[in-house]
Design goal:
By secondary structure, the protein is an alpha/beta fold. The chain is built from 18 helices and 12 strands.
Length: 465
Amino acid sequence: MPAKETKTSNITGISAASIFAEFFWRALLLMLSEENRDVRSRKGVSAGDAFFNFIKLSLFQYTMLKYRYMVSFNDKVIIDSTFPPYPSPAFDKRLSNYLNNLDLTELPSGIISVSTTNCCPYSCSFCSTSAHRDPEADLDEELLKTTIRQIEALGVPTIILHGGEPLYRYDRFLRLLKHVNKDMCIWMFSTGYAATLEKAVELRENGLFGVWVSLDHYDPKVHNRLRGHSQAFENAIKGIEVFKKAGVYTCLSLVPPDDLLEPENFLKYYDLARDLGVAEIRILERKPCGREACKGVIPHSPVLEQLQKDLFWDRAYRHYPPISGLSTWLEKDPAFGCQCRFEYLFITSTGEVQPCEASEISFGNITKEEFPEVYQRICKAFPRPATGCIPMVMFPEVRNYQIIKDQLSSEATAELSAQIMKSFQEKGKIPGAYKRIWSIYQRRLQVYRNRKTVLPASHVNVTPN
């Protein structure tokens, strides 16, 4: 299949209202579908619970889109790069998961990211992966394929094939991509290293929907220095070009250096993003992890959060790529707070299952036990969302975990991780998106759990949809 270059555009005005109506109608049809009603019946989720979930879903959509535009891409609509495109089987699965699961510990994660290799030719100080160039140290390919199938069976709608740099081991990456069920939404992170049009087309033909290309600065010299590679900027620009030409939904991933926290400098970056024709910009603020953990907690600047709001309301920027990402607006207290586990999980290149790349605490290792067992453990450790960021709020505890983890059994490290998460949730508050409905949720949850105690065992053990 040849390349099929496409353009993206922001959805504004009446068109946005029309799309909102479509989402509302699609969610209603899914809620009333016989298949989903049967799933809820067997789980003990009542019609009232489903309606509550429907209202919750509407509130979440409002929060997610409060300071960003939806994007039109071919025949798809993208709410945010962390959500599957509409229409698609993955989109329906994501909505059905919200509608069919009242208990947050039973809600399938929205995204699970799997590190396909630790190999990378770059050396980024803020990266949580200690990249190297030894393919023999990577996880067994068959183990990764088995884990991918297990992720699908849990009802997870989106998978990210991560690195290192996935294209560094392209043939291996392609085999893993082909192994993913095409009903899932498939993404990748890339520096752009070794990207060609032929590879990009082949990846798209085999199910890749979107890519985040790392680009941290408008100045090539600064980006090259941050990435520890003399051609990092050139590779990123080429990667953006070929993925766009191949018909892949192409976004930027940005870890902003200090000078981009100045509005005039960020606007230079924003102009470059517009000129490159990318669909979105995903901003990941620095966390105390990787080789930068020694610097301790550096509070996030309020500048980018305010700038995102200002740019959204400024009509001069309505056709610029929207700003997304869990560590800018969406992670803040008025929105969703930390969305680890609910929104995102990360499997490292050594098999550790972490809440995210930056948290660096593990609930188990897929080389030692089956992923579903680790997954159930981590679900129990996240009964509710909380404001804040795990490695920032729990920095001393996470650093202590790093010091003693090798002296502990896998059971002990998982227990320590659970204790860290319990303390994190106790220190945090219920985020704004949940706050208005939290008391209602708690009452419904108690009734739901009481109801489950009288259900036959065959009803409780339901395969996630």
